[in-house]
Amino acid sequence: MASGGNDFDNSTADQYVHPLYCLMAVEEADWSGLLAISGRDRKEKKPLLQDVSQNNKEVVAVGLGIHPWKTQNVQSGWEGRLKEALERDPTLIVGEIGLDKARESGKKSWEEQRQIFELQMKLAAELKRPVSVHCVRAYGIVYEWLKGRSAADLPPSVAFHSYTGSLDMAGAFLRLEHLQGSVFFGFSAAVCLRYPAAEAKLRQVLPILPKESLLLESDLDDREAVPGAMNTICDVVAEVKGMERNALAEVTTKNAERFLRRALR
Ligand SMILES: [Zn+2]
């Protein structure tokens, strides 16, 4: 499970920058717990939400999916169960799904990853749900997949979470005309600032990304660690973009809402 969006304490952000959480499953075992906190009457429901959300200003979105690290755990019939759950709750997004070449172990596991990813992308397109994509050393494959489809056959929005792709790849995604305005690039301290090389890449890529395409995220499970991680990534991204941190927080909150809009209706 990962959380994204913006989280700031009162001293660092304007009051109208609402914390926004996106909690995402990585395998079917997570779905029921997350379904318990999604849905229209989510406010009355459930410890996880109360834990995450201390007041009503916070927005919680939930994603269901199979992560590329968990493809070996799938039980037959998972696609049908995923579709059913998504159809029952129009606020759900699809995530966290993706492709991870660093975790491939042989041809079979790679084929499985690809199949499971593509099935979920098609489902997200069919049901018009935003998708959060985990991608490691496989951006070219995702690019070809997106490029080969018309806008009508694509999910309404795609966010690369903890983007670690190249400058060229980011430029290629931005030039895909049928995806204009619906591709987002997420940055987290946990992944994008983990090594000097990762931070160097972030500093190289950020200048070409329009501010309307940026998301800040924690990519952490530990609730306590989220505010610090969000402040850290916000400071670095604001510095590279030459923006005030609060202005960046405001823009990225709006971007997160735009990314999730189909799921938060
Ligand atoms: Zn991930």
UniProtKB/TrEMBL annotation:
InterPro entries: Metal_Hydrolase, TatD-like. Keywords: Metal-binding. It comes from Nannochloropsis salina CCMP1776. A divalent metal cation 1 binds at residues 96, 219. This is TatD related DNase. It comes from the Eukaryota. A divalent metal cation 2 binds at residues 134, 161. Pfam families: TatD_DNase. The lineage of its organism: Eukaryota, Sar, Stramenopiles, Ochrophyta, Eustigmatophyceae.
